[in-house]
Write a structure and sequence with these properties.
The structure holds 2 protein chains of 2 kinds. By secondary structure, chain A is mainly alpha-helical. Chain A has one domain. Helix content of chain A is 74%, strand content 3%. Chain A has 12 helices and 2 strands; from the N terminus they run αααααααββααααα. In chain A, strand 1 and strand 2 form a beta hairpin. The relative contact order of chain A is 0.24. Chain B folds into 2 domains: 103 residues, no CATH class; 38 residues, no CATH class. Chain B is built from 5 helices and no strands. The chains are: A mainly alpha, B mainly alpha. The interface between A and B is large, with 70 and 77 residues.
């Protein structure tokens, strides 16, 4: 055990997880690049540590959302069938697809998400309550409401286009398993554009689903022997602390601010992923 | 359409409690395991002690991975008790897929052929190894070297 390295891992994970929690996503998306570039940790070890931290972030920050009735549990478990199946496919593909290709693909997906976020800056609140209920949303009683402190009342919303949402969730689960990230950046746009949920509900529900999705792949990697305790341990503990801090900020912040922060982070990440895809960051990567 | 209103609120509190408790338990185990390992390495204790103490942190990581599984099991039980068989089936399906992931990992476990019986005896548990540690931090390098060397 190296004391300084352990503390560095802890501090990095705490910062990444606090930022992730504010956006309603796990910090894995920051942790993998930072560990690989600055920590000189092998990419497979970084992914293994990150997927554990993703679970820690999700579980650690879920309770306040659940008690605040922002999480749609029924929708979450329904979509989890797709995300876990995606994660399982990702486990199978893990050794087949070169990681550099995936970083490139991910950069493209991030940029598409940025474009979506920039194009539509309002919550689909009014539209959602007035819109006709989706067929599946009605059949599974997925429609719900959430408390809005600014208005002092509950706001009803409807779940639309569930099959399209399920397909996007499968993709999100796949990317989550392959890159060791929560892929909240993919889940939240999917919930915004396909299911048309209010952003607070989609953030909370996505965060809730991330833990189960990551457990499917983390379980496989753990059993396979890809998770190194000396790296994954400090990262996990740091993530729990960071997630607790981040969740508090999200519930108090306004929708517009979350969205702006979200766009800025997406652009920064896309640039980082592109650099890695072309081998600038990963000159000594094994793949 | 709103017949499920009172139930989810109870379920939400139950899940919040499960996740809260589970996260603290797992984090405490990992934290304790790491602290013990750091202390042991400070006072230059036998190498085997480091491995044993890292095992506590490893158990914590296993707990963390099992926590979402426990969360799905809680949901399954609650849905079954409320005779909501449609959502029980959905929860069961999610549970099955996750367990399938565990099975896939177990089947694909890295086979590490030992060159001597001594190495075999002192090999770290399979989950504390990594497949391709080309660029290792000092800690890992030291740990691997100590665990592979016959004493």
């Amino acid at each position: 055990m190296h004391c300084g390295f352990t503390i560095w891992l802890f501090a990095v994970s705490m910062g990444a997880s606090a930022l992730g929690g504010m956006l309603g996503m796990a910090g894995g998306i920051f942790i993998v690049p930072i560990l690989a570039i600055f920590g000189h940790v092998d990419i497979h070890v970084a992914i293994g540590a990150s997927i554990v931290s993703v679970i820690a972030c999700s579980c650690g920050s879920a309770p306040p959302f659940l008690r605040g009735r922002l999480t749609n549990i029924r929708l979450a478990i329904t979509l989890e069938t797709a995300t876990t199946l995606g994660a399982l496919s990702g486990v199978f593909l893990f050794g087949v697809i070169p990681v550099s290709y995936l970083f490139f693909l991910f950069a493209v997906i991030l940029l598409v998400s940025v474009q979506q976020m920039m194009a539509r800056r309002d919550d689909p609140l009014g539209a959602s309550a007035a819109a006709p209920t989706g067929r599946w949303g009605a059949a599974l009683c997925l429609d719900s409401s959430y408390p809005e402190p600014a208005l002092g009342t509950d706001i009803a919303y409807r779940v639309q286009r569930l099959p399209m949402g399920m397909m996007l969730m499968f993709g999100a689960g796949l990317i989550s398993a392959l890159l060791g990230i929560g892929s909240g950046v993919l889940k939240i746009p999917a919930m915004d554009t396909a299911l048309r949920l209010p952003i607070k509900v989609s953030s909370a529900t996505s965060n809730f689903m991330i833990g189960v999705t990551a457990a499917a792949s983390a379980g496989a990697y753990f059993m396979r022997g890809d998770i190194v305790t000396a790296v994954a341990g400090p990262v996990a503990v740091g993530s729990v602390v960071g997630a607790l801090l981040g969740a508090r900020i999200l519930i108090r912040a306004s929708n517009a601010r979350i969205r702006l922060l979200f766009v800025v982070v997406l652009v920064a990440l896309a640039a980082q992923m592109l650099l890695q895809a072309f081998g600038i960051g990963f000159s000594k990567g094994p793949l | 359409m709103n017949h499920a209103t009172p139930r989810p609120v109870q379920l939400e509190w139950l899940l919040a409690g499960t996740l809260h408790l589970g996260t603290w338990l797992a984090s405490a185990a990992i934290g304790l395991g790491l602290a013990l390992a750091l202390l042991e390495s400070r006072f230059s204790a036998p190498k085997l002690a480091i491995l044993r103490d890292m095992r506590i942190a490893t158990i914590g990581i296993a707990l963390l991975i099992l926590l979402p599984v426990a969360r799905v099991i809680v949901m399954l039980i609650v849905y079954l008790r409320h005779r909501d068989y449609r959502f029980s089936a959905i929860a069961l399906l999610v549970l099955t897929i996750i367990l399938l992931g565990f099975a896939v990992g177990l089947a694909g476990r890295h086979s590490d052929t030992p060159t001597s019986p001594v190495q075999e005896a002192q090999r770290p548990p399979p989950w504390s190894r990594s497949r391709q540690l080309t660029v290792t931090p000092h800690a890992l390098l030291a740990k691997r070297a100590s665990s592979r060397q016959p004493e």
